[in-house]
Structures are given as C-alpha cells and as structure tokens.
Amino acid sequence: MQQVFATPALQYLLHVPDGAALPLILFLHGSGERGDDPALVKKYGLPRDLDRRPDFPFVVVSPQCPADVRWTELPDAIMGVLDAVLAGHNVDRDRLYLTGFSMGGQGAWNLAVLHPDVFAAVAPVAGFIPPAPGFLERLCAIAALPVWAAHGDADDVVPPEATRTMVERLQACGGDVRFTLYPGLDHGQTSDAFFADETLADWFMRHSKRMP
Q1: What domain range is 71 assigned to?
Q2: What is the 3-state secondary structure (H, E, C) of 45-93?
Q3: Is 87 domain-assigned?
C-alpha cells in the first residue's frame, strides 16, 4: 500500500517493497493531478497500479504538484522529496530512475537536464518541451544518460512533435535515446500503454551509474 508523506514543500506517495538496497523510480504526474489530495496522483502511470502490486521491486516515489504551478518551476522541491526518501530508506543510489507523464514528462526532461549525474535512466512520456531558455541546446547535458521517450501519434493535448524534436536534438548530440511513437493512441492511452509495458522495469534495471 502506498503511504502519504510530506516534505515542507510537497506531499508524496511512497511505495516501498520488502528488500534491501532497492532501486528507485521517481514518478512525476500530469497537470490534472495537481492539488492537495494525494489520491489524485493515482489516476495515471505507476501510482495507479502499485496498490495492487505490493511486490513491484522498486521504491516508487510520486510527489504531488500544488495547483497552478508546473514541475518545471519546482526542481528544488522535487529533489527535496528525493533526498528525504534516500535519507529514510535503503535505496541503491546507483539505480535512481526518473519518469513522468504529460506535465510530468516535461518535468522529467527538465529535471534530468538540471541533474544529469543523479539518475541512471530517464523515461519521459508525452511532455511539452520545457520552457527554460535554450533548453534544446542544453539537452546535450544528458547525451550519456539512457533515455526512453514515448508519445502517441494521435495525441491532441501535447503534440508528438514536441517529443520528436527533443529526441532528434538528443540524437544529434550522440545521445543514448530510444523513441516509441504509438500509432493511433491519444494522450491518456499513451500513458496506459507505456506504463503497462512489462519491459519498462527491465529496461530501467539494465542501467546503473556503476556501468562504464
């Protein structure tokens, strides 16, 4: 069962299975789940299914963004949540992973670029290009970071060209990037397909900061 915790800045859901030195996934939700009710965070993505998967072999931390702001405005608050979880649980710090959907996909791109040495892999889903000045040029900072980006080609909320543009820019930097474009899937369906993919956990686990 996911439990609710809080730092001074953010509430968050936390899934902690049995085991020692566990890998960790940081999940950032979309704009519709903002507010002060952590149950909203379970609408999409990993948090939706974790209560039925108590043995999912990752610590999963899912902060909630307050209303009327975006993840791109809160990188320090997000990292504060991560630091709190790392301080309180036996986590493998070489296996910290980052993902997010929609506004959270945008936030994942942004946070990875700000902290390229923290995460072992990042999987942004259906997110806009972050608004930071020069962001596309700064993507080269994560050229060495394994990235799996995804979008649906029928998404009428966030155009798939946003993800394609970031993927192409990262490829131009020599980035280690995988791009899944789901034919016929809209915005919400893209989240359903990506986070239901049983290869996602294996893909994360293939990557560690210890690797050369």
Answers
A1: 3-205
A2: CHHHHHHHCCCCCCEEEEECCCCCCCHHHCHHHHHHHHHHHHHHCCEEE
A3: yes
**Residue 210 resides in a domain:** no
Total tally of structural domains belonging to the chain: 1
CATH no. for residue 129? 3.40.50.1820
pLDDT digits (tens, 9 = 90+) for 153-180: 999 999 999 999 999 999 999 999 999 9
Whether residue 199 lies inside any domain: the answer is yes
C-beta separation of 64 from 38 below 8 A: yes
pLDDT digits (tens, 9 = 90+) for 108-156: 999 999 999 999 999 999 999 999 999 999 999 999 999 999 999 999 9
DSSP letters for 101-163 = ETHHHHHHHHHHHH-TTT-SEEEEES-PPP-STTHHHHGGGGTTS-EEEEEETT-SSS-HHHH
Nearest 10 degrees: CA dihedral of 95, 143, 139, 157?
Answer: -70
pLDDT tens-place string over residues 68-107: 999 999 999 999 999 999 999 999 999 999 999 999 999 9
Instruction: Record the tokens describing residue 108, joined without a space.
Output: 């994942």
Task: For residue 211, tell me if it sits in a domain.
Answer: no
Rounded to two decimals, what is the model's pTM? 0.97
Task: Spell out the residues 6+ positions from residue 198 whose beta carbon is closer than 8 angstroms to its own.
Answer: none
